[in-house]
Write a structure and sequence with these properties.
By secondary structure, the chain is α+β, with helices and mostly antiparallel strands. 31% of the residues lie in helices and 34% in strands. It has 4 helices and 9 strands, in the order H-H-H-E-E-E-E-H-E-E-E-E-E. The chain has helices at 2-5, 13-36, 41-70, 131-141, and strands spanning 82-93, 97-108, 114-115, 118-127, 154-161, 168-169, 174-184, 189-197, 206-214. A 4-stranded antiparallel sheet has the order 5-4-8-9, with no helix packed on it. A hairpin with a 3-residue loop joins strand 1 (82-93) and strand 2.
Length: 221
């Protein structure tokens, strides 16, 4: 499931802030070098002190902004944030199949309008599984001493793409997206996973939701 979540993530905010400071200092250094070749001795001392003071002021302002952003949480209220919730239902059709409907409700819990361009729906099998398939799955969870999500067998995988302006969610509003599956009746428990993001945004971000859904024992329904 995690293979989608690692796609299209931007350069970290801290790295971008450090890069911005480096660019400011580098630009100032180049400017000082160019001006130094044109100054007279009398101008050099006077103007150099003024420029150094300006550079220190700029660096202090940038550093203060970075500190306020990360430590005081200022401006973060304007970052996009999506909350995804699932509503799952099922019904048996015919003698051999079950219909599963998954509605992902996309709630914009931020103060900015959000545009989503791609969505993934993943349905995975939990039960029934034979013992010889379960044991390798459990061993993979603690591989290399790091916890990893169980990679359950994939039943269905659906990718949705939206055109520009097609899926917009205003602040405080919600938007439902529904996908349907038809599976053999033998399935008892499934894992439902969704992932929505905007890969063409200037700061791409993605949001996920995961639920386990029990269909039940078909023999007793």
């Amino acid at each position: 499931m995690s293979r989608f979540a690692g796609l299209f993530w931007p350069l970290g905010q801290v790295q971008r802030s450090v890069l911005m400071i480096v660019v400011v200092l580098l630009t100032t250094t180049i400017a000082l070098f160019v001006l130094n070749r044109t100054w007279t001795d009398a101008e050099r001392g006077k103007d150099l002190a003024a420029i150094i003071q300006s550079v220190v002021t700029v660096v202090a302002i940038v550093g203060g902004g970075v500190f306020a952003y990360y430590k005081l949480q200022i401006f973060r209220v304007f970052e996009p944030h999506l909350t995804i919730s699932h509503e799952v239902s099922h019904r048996y059709i015919g003698d051999s199949y079950v219909h599963i409907a998954v509605t992902a409700t996309l709630h914009n819990s931020s103060r900015v309008k959000m545009e989503l361009r791609k969505g993934f729906f993943l349905l995975q099998q939990i039960s029934p599984l034979p013992d010889e398939d379960i044991e390798p799955l459990y061993e993979q969870v603690f591989e290399d001493q790091d916890y990893e999500h169980i990679q359950w067998p994939t039943l269905e995988e659906v990718e949705r793409e939206f055109g520009e302006g097609e899926l917009l969610v205003e602040p405080g509003e919600s938007h439902p997206e529904t996908i349907e599956y038809i599976l053999p009746r033998l399935h008892k428990s499934v894992m439902v996973y969704t992932y929505f993001y905007n890969p063409v945004s200037s700061t791409p971000q993605g949001w996920t939701a995961t639920n386990v859904y029990d269909i039940g024992d078909a023999q007793h329904d």
